[in-house]
Predict the structure.
Amino acid sequence: MDPCDQLQKLGQGAYRCKNYPAALDFFNSVIFQEKNPAIDVLDNRAATYEKLGDLHAALKDGRRMITDHKTSCASACLNRPKGYLRTGKTLKLLGKPTTALGIYQYGLRNVPPDDPNFKVRVCLLVLLDHMLTLSKLLRRMHEDIIRSYGTGRAKDPLTVLPAEIAEMILSYLDFRQIV
């Protein structure tokens, strides 16, 4: 067995045992030993970075998965969608769902229809559909909240409060704050 494969297996075992720093060390060893690391190793390291909370490093690995394995189609062709999925997930965790959606769409355009890993392509489509549905739902909920607290129900508190209380409130403010 190749030493890099052994290191990757050890890293996966450490990841399963939730020993993320050790897993990261194993994956880093593999990546530093290989000139062009396999997409699975980059994916493993990105997942480890996510668990450790280093989302920017995970995003960097996800983007590297896309760029390094975009055109080479030997064994990487089987895993080509992984880079788009990992990058989209990381962007979503970073609070950038719109950018994540763009990455998923970009992946759908760039993964060929005859890709042997067609199930992943279908999963991308389903995920994209779910994200669009969720986006529409959130937009509707936001509009409902805005409508319920809109200007029709808002009132000036000084017109509703008794004059004595309004006067007490205003006594705490400077003249510049009142005007």
